[in-house]
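Model it.
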Amino acid sequence: MKKKMDAVTKAKLIYLIELLVIAIAFLVIGILELLAILKINTVILTIFNWLTLFGGLWLIIDFVWIMVSKKRRLKASILDKSLLLPLGIYLITFDLICLIGNIDKVSQYDVYRFGVSAVLLYVFIIYTFEAIYHWFKPIPGFIEDIQKADEEDQKAAAKKLENKEVAPEENKQEENKE
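Modeled.
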């Protein structure tokens, strides 16, 4: 008979697989972009620049927020935010150079090719590391949430079992009344 996996281990496994799948997706797209197999048109590159400009700004704000807020620090991983901080700085710099520098997206496509690939491959490295690291050192808020959900499930199962036990007794009492 198989031993049932506890909720924390199951959640850690799902999180590990999720991070690895996302990491592999970033790796594949990064390699395809680096080898110029996947060529992005100029409209998409401009949209990429604007989105990642605000995304990079958010990564920096998120890092500052976790460093300032004690409550947030207890729930999230400082390491995760620290690993993304250089990415935020890079994205803002890269996007400003591309947008303000008015880099010609057609003749200087290699700037984008290497710049975008660097981002995608860096994210692959971060997510792969986080998948392995968080298997051994889970995010504190993640474990708390899993334990709360598991306790609620156990309470619901106990209540359901209690209702099943009470129901047959009520049926016997009703039969005795007749």
